[in-house]
Specification:
Elements: H1 17-23, E1 31-35, E2 41-45, E3 59-62, E4 65-68, H2 69-74
Length: 78
């Protein structure tokens, strides 16, 4: 997926709904903003919660959703 977006007057950029749905990004999630050596801007999730139990520990992203180790161990294919 690729999108071109304008920066609004207050300096914000809206993430397209298709992208948010695909990655499971929900309202209120925090993103880290980092500028890398070549000048690119990278957004990275700071915190999240397991889609199954709500835990915020031992998370990994699977198909755009967070899953904790305990739930990954009990659900096949993760």
């Amino acid at each position: 997926m690729e999108f071109n977006k304008k920066i609004n007057r207050s300096g914000g950029v809206t993430l397209p709904s298709a992208l948010r749905r695909e990655l499971g990004i929900e309202e209120g999630e925090k993103l880290n903003i980092k500028v890398v050596d070549n000048g690119d801007i990278v957004l990275k999730r700071v915190v999240g919660a397991c889609v199954f139990c709500g835990s915020d520990e031992n998370l990994k992203v699977h198909k755009g959703r967070f899953a904790c180790k305990s739930c990954r161990d009990t659900v096949s294919g993760l």
